[in-house]
Write a structure and sequence with these properties.
The structure holds 2 protein chains of 2 kinds. Helices cover 80% and strands 0% of the residues of chain A. Chain A contains 11 helices and no strands. Chain B contains 10 helices and 20 strands. The longest helix of chain B has 18 residues, at 166-183. Classes of the chains: A mainly alpha, B alpha+beta.
Chain lengths: 217, 359
């Protein structure tokens, strides 16, 4: 088990998902509520990493990074991961924002709250499960990232060597026992994370009082 | 356009033109004087009443027109800056906030004053509940409390009673009338219920097909609809004031003008009522029937006959002005003309009594 790689991976995933929240929350708000007629172009751009081969994304990012001296650095890797995981953060949040009924937003305005206040007092509290899902999903997706990391980060121990790269190296070196352990670790982490997401979206804990009431009736 | 003097005497001037793609457009002018008054926007569903309300609130952008409140131009002001209390048709209580947090949402009130608003509206015992745990009547009162806690200068109520069942509605309507009168805040109330209009309204705008057809005091509009569409929207041809003389065995005897009639006792202590009778409920007879289940047999003379669609509208002077809607065949068979002596017959249950608190 390569603890250094695990450390790098967790650091990369948490940094990426925190930064992604800063980008995804305003971007999702705009995507959910803007009436701009060309909005679908932006939606397509955001969804691009879902279908693009990681090597293609990685290649372009690498070229761009080179100009700023960020290629093969941890910071460069974070930027690439943010781009790569963007749809995983944005899409659940957009869906949750879009599900907030218009009347609650209008009611908030009519009680004197601005758009920004309404965002924090009505939209976020009612989209809580979607926001957590976006955060956790982008974390999990960054954990398992391989192609982009290889292209942009290279394979520098302690800096850009993540678990998935480490597994690849072990297998190349026919070191199967180490690869088994690392793979199992990633498998367990991923499974726990997805369980959390599916649990959340059953809304077992959300509006618990509301549920109890409906069951009682 | 209004002269400057007229602008000065008005609290609200709203000239609204709103076009929707592929749907009916709404063009309406609303004027509200200074001081406490309740204006009813009345009409069938799809008449554009809610659109007018939403335009005044800023929830819809005007295609053309202007909104001036107390001399201030609201036309392009964002909705959250307008000191309006807007009661949504289904109340829109925030499901993620408890009742007390809903009422305190506007953040203008201390804990104490939230409690006093809640107790005025009799919801102080459910402050810790979730909105989903409340009955329809309680939700309505919590929503009203939330609106009042923002200290509005104009109340806009969109069908405030329509989400309630019939039994609750009568009760809540009386309470709402009381609250509106006590607050002294001008209000615009959207409704398609003529009982709401008579109970709550000082002024009434009848809308149909996106246009305002008639403006006036509710009893006047009911009595003298100036448009066939207003008559059908209103649906009550006779509205007169009456006073209960005596009540016995669930029946009330009322004095109306120089005559008396019998109605089902509405209960309560009130004595003064609007007496409302639908034209369709009035039967005309030449002589007085020997026996009949109908309690009211009024002798009168025909004062006017006019065409009302497939029916004939017969106005009878029976000590007050009573309108009957009969078929043309009946008009011919009874040889009705101006001056004909006739009996107007209707059941006690056809007489609707609406409390008249304005006397």
């Amino acid at each position: 088990m390569n603890w250094e790689a695990l450390n790098t991976t967790l650091e990369l995933a948490s940094t990426t998902s925190v930064i992604l929240m800063g980008i995804a929350l305003p971007l999702s708000y705009w995507l959910a509520f803007s009436e701009w007629r060309w909005k679908f172009f932006i939606e397509a751009v955001v969804a691009l990493p879902l279908v693009l081969p990681p090597t293609v994304l990685g290649f372009y990012v690498l070229i761009a990074m080179g100009r700023f001296g960020l290629a093969f650095t941890f910071r460069g890797l974070v930027i690439a991961s943010v781009l790569y995981s963007l749809p995983f953060a944005v899409q659940p949040i957009v869906a949750a924002f879009g599900a907030v009924e218009r009347k609650y937003i209008e009611a908030s305005w009519m009680l004197g709250s601005s758009n920004l206040q309404t965002f924090f007092r009505v939209i976020i509290p009612q989209s809580w499960a979607g926001v957590v899902t976006g955060f956790v999903l982008s974390f999990a997706h960054t954990l398992g990232e391989f192609g982009v990391v290889l292209m942009v980060g290279g394979n520098i121990p302690g800096v850009t060597r993540t678990l998935s790269i480490d597994i690849y190296d072990q297998v190349q070196a026919l070191n199967y026992s180490s690869a088994t352990l690392t793979s199992a670790t990633l498998l367990v982490i991923s499974f726990v994370i997805l369980s959390i997401i599916y649990g959340l979206n059953r809304r077992v804990w959300f509006f618990a009082a509301d549920r109890r009431h409906r069951e009682a009736v | 356009m209004d002269s400057i003097e007229e602008c000065g005497s008005l609290l609200l001037i709203a000239d609204i033109e709103k076009r929707f793609k592929g749907r009916l457009s709404v063009e309406a002018s609303v004027r509200i004087p200074h001081g406490p008054s309740t204006t009813i926007l009345f009409g069938p569903s799809g008449a554009g009443k809610t659109t007018v309300l939403r335009c005044i609130a800023g929830l819809e952008k005007l295609t053309a027109g202007r909104i001036i409140f107390n001399g201030q131009d609201w036309t392009n002001m964002p909705p959250h800056k307008r000191p309006i209390g807007y009661l949504f048709q289904d109340y829109a209580l925030f499901p993620h906030l408890r009742v007390s947090e809903n009422i305190g949402y506007a953040g203008k009130q201390s804990r104490e004053s939230i409690k006093s608003i809640a107790s005025m509206l009799k919801v102080d015992d459910v402050l810790d509940h979730w909105p989903s745990e409340l009955s329809g009547g309680q939700q309505q009162r919590v929503a009203l409390a939330r609106v009042l806690a923002r200290e509005p200068r104009l109340l806009l109520l969109d069908e405030p009673l329509s989400a309630l069942d019939a039994a609750t509605r009568d009760h809540v309507r009386a309470e709402l009338a009381q609250v509106l009168r006590n607050l002294g805040i001008p209000a615009i109330v959207v409704s398609h219920d003529w009982v709401d209009a008579l109970t709550l309204g000082d002024q009434m705008l009848v809308m149909s097909g996106g246009r305002v057809l008639q403006v006036g005091a509710p009893p006047e509009v009911f009595k003298r609809p100036q448009h066939p569409e207003v008559a059908s929207a209103v649906g009550v041809e006779t509205v007169v004031t009456g006073r209960i003389r005596r009540r016995e065995a669930g029946v009330a005897l009322l004095d109306i003008g120089s005559t008396q009639l019998v109605a089902a006792d509405p209960g309560g202590d009130a004595l003064d009522f609007y007496v409302c009778i639908r034209g369709e409920d009035v039967t005309l007879e030449k002589g007085r029937a020997e026996q009949s289940s109908a309690r009211n047999h009024l002798r009168g003379t025909v004062s006017q006959i006019s065409v009302a669609g497939v029916l004939t509208k017969v106005t009878i002077d029976a000590g007050f002005e009573l309108v009957a809607l009969v078929t043309r065949q009946a008009t011919a068979d009874l040889e009705l003309s101006t001056g004909t002596e006739i009996f107007a017959v209707f059941k006690a249950s056809a007489v609707h009594l609406i409390p008249n608190a304005r006397i």
